[in-house]
Design a protein that fits this description.
Layout: E1 3-7, E2 10-12, E3 18-25, E4 28-39, E5 46-51, E6 57-59, E7 67-72, E8 77-82, E9 91-101, E10 106-110, E11 114-118
Parallel strand pairs: 2-11
Antiparallel strand pairs: 1-3, 3-8, 4-5, 4-9, 5-6, 7-8, 9-10, 9-11
Length: 120
């Protein structure tokens, strides 16, 4: 059973940094595009970053220049480095990935989410 597990959330002051990680495990054959989403209280979930299996990245405009995404295909992991954090970056961050399993099925998976709070 494929699982995505996030880690690295926490509380940070404005201007601080956090690094989120997400690992896919459990019958993984190949991980395709991986994405980070976030959901602020009372708001819809929004896309933050996309990274293809070839390493091409897309970062949403509101965090461009502050957030970077990277991945390690050998370990089936993706990371989101968040610098110069602002209070409006507060929310639950979710990892999402398209995964080909060892039984050859393919589907979209979500992690459980990790809380990021930016507050003075």
């Amino acid at each position: 059973q494929v699982q995505l597990v996030e880690s690295g959330g926490g509380v940070v002051h404005p201007g601080g940094s956090l690094r989120l990680s997400c690992a896919a495990s459990g019958g993984v054959f190949r991980v395709n595009t991986m994405r980070w989403f976030r959901q602020a209280p009372g708001k819809q979930r929004e896309l933050v970053a996309t990274i293809t299996d070839g390493g091409e990245t897309y970062i949403v405009g509101s965090v461009k220049g502050r957030f970077t995404a990277s991945r390690d295909n050998a370990k089936n992991t993706v990371a989101l480095q968040m610098n110069s954090l602002k209070p409006e970056d507060t929310g639950v961050y979710y990892c999402n990935a398209g995964v080909r399993s060892t039984d050859w099925s393919f589907r979209d998976y979500w992690g459980q989410g990790t809380q990021v709070t930016v507050s003075s």
